[in-house]
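DATA SHEET
Item: assembly model
Revision: 1
Owner: S.N.
Input lines:
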Amino acid sequence: MSTPKRYLITAALPYANGQKHIGHLAGAYLPADIYVRYLKAQKRDAVFVCGSDEHGTAIPIQATKEGTTAQAIIDKYHPLMEQNFKDLGIAFDVYHRTSDPLHHQTAQEFFTKLEASGDLETKETEQYFDESAQTFLADRYIKGTCPSCNYDSAYGDQCEKCGKSLSPEELINPVSTLSGNAPIKKTTKHWYLPLNRHEDFLREWILESHANDWRPSVVGQCKSWIDGGLQPRAVTRDLDWGVKVPLAGADGKVLYVWFDAPIGYISATKQWALNTGKDWKPYWEDKDTKLVHFIGKDNIVFHCIIFPVMLRLHGNILPTDVPANEFMNLEGDKMSTSRNWKLDMQDYITDFVNKENGGGQMADALRYYLTQIAPETKDSEFMWKGFQDAINSELVSVYGNFINRSLVLMHKLCGGKVPPYHAAIEDSEDIAVKEAIANTAKKVGELIEAYRFREALFEVIALARIGNGYMQKKEPWIVAKQVAENPAAQQQIDNCLHLCLQLTANLAILAQPFLPFTAKKICHLLKVVDKILDWENAGSLKLLSVGYTLRAPELLFRKIEDEEIAAQIQKLNDAAQIKKMETTPTTSSSTSTIAAVKPEIVFDDFAKIDLRVGTIVAASKVEKADKLLQLSVDLGFETRTIVSGIAQHFEPETIVGKQVTVVVNLAPRKMRGIESNGMILMAEDANGKLHFVNPSDNINPGSGVS
RNA sequence: GGCGAGGUAGCUCAGUUGGUUAGAGCACAGGAUUCAUAACCCUGAGGUCAUGGGUUCAAGUCCCAUUCUCGCUACCA
């Protein structure tokens, strides 16, 4: 495979609604950074773009929650994330943001072009507005009767029973799945990206041409999506936060966030070009550009299916590869912002990178461990003990120690200068080390190009290990005792340390993509310019000239103490505990998590609802449904079948005998083929857990509730 | 429920198109050594390759079933 003329590397745009944790870092940003640093060391033309994703409904919602504005939210998190990345050595060429006018303009141009060439479909409808929720309803939030087969639970986009693709207005008796109300008809026009038109292209491009060179999980996920049937996807939304739809009569409409966000890669590239006086176009238009998206597995369909379709229609190049990573867990549990079970980049920086606690070397320590446990083929686990072990017994003891002992011995036995190499007395050990250096340089490059960063890093450490073994065999500290009687012995010492020092310089080059701060520090110790880190020097044995004076050794890394680990684990548990207490309903005094009060109704509306107390007499799981339980409820005057979506909260056998409140005059409804006659009232707490609403004492089934 | 990806030594993971006694690092045990951040070096113990069938002269590697984990998706009036 020939080398592309240029590379464009993207890392998933982080959503600007909060701190990002090390799972995000390990999934996308760190591997992308390693790859880019390698390419740049190769002097290849590579641009690394990223930026904050600042649109979407979640941001205004969060603003309401925090009692502030959407703008304030993004203005808070955008610079924070940018700084975090910088502190951890993630060297974007540009860190842009989607709220920037340049992005708005770029996204609008993109949309306009697709619109003008007939690649989008529009549908003007006058349905799907839910008055109680005050929102337009997406297709799948509407149900009704299928016009073709009369199935009564067809979705707004497709009938599950007959498989027919539908639009919401075709449904008979549509119902909002949000409120249960019939949505009112309100005219709205939306644009759609008809993915279904591109099925042939996607099949060929992904399932055939990339069947073997993309990661199995990526191809598998795409296959699953394509086989499931591609549907037109709405490109616009009725919302006032985002990129305005650039057409007359489209007031109050913005581009759907999934549509505008990936275009952020393009606008970021434009911004980079403006900053540097370069031309951005070839990076998105020239076939000889290699485009690589680094993402987490949750983003696969956007980057492999939807965005490529957009790019193709718009006349851009397609990604060459999308090396998606799996997820990283933390201390035995999934990382979760809502449960506060996570390690934020900022927290790590505060505790380890800042202060006089290690600085950039500690950023490298994190980079080392995250790379070593990168979830390249399956979910992985961040353990604080594992972090400590990896740093102390590999990075410090093998890598750092080899460099330190080389420098110390050189000062003690060679007068602080790079000793000469006496080819005449070269032996097989020397040759073996030379070969190992050359081999490792080659191997590391190949592994990085194949996105196998974990293995590549392992090879770097293995080379340091070879250095330690070599030194052990040569024992220059023993040989030194003979020099007084036999001056020629000094030559053996010279050869050993000459090679160890050249090896040290190589270790800086090879580690540079992974441990950039460390590589720089080694350059400092060796008194060489950073230019030596160019990859063309990897494998070279002439990096340090004979007779050159080097600096006094300094330790590259410090060890991680047991107390630090214990403190972090404590902190993690405490934070999760506090979060749990905060969200426990009894102690919650804040209004932040309370849903807004619905519009006022008159008494007559309320009186229409017939509420009764009932007793559950039987309960069982509904087949082929994860969330549904089929209940028999004794209402005194009759026993009814009611289907309820509570299977994930209760075991069927444990709820028999419980009293519940039932809406008895709700229209019957079929779910998974079972007719449900009524609805059980449930209360949901801040943790999302459901609780029955029932009388405090057992009373007769059938008793009215008002 | 459907689809996808995984389940290999205590831990983290490799195992190419099926082919001799299944590999590495960490941790552990023993030994050697002192230049080095109680670091390094050598040696060792450790696995019925999730379970059960099948194909084959031969299976961790292919096929079927089961089970567990993760993700996408459906079901929640």
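QC remark: Confidence is low (pLDDT under 50) at residues 159-165, 585-594 of chain A.
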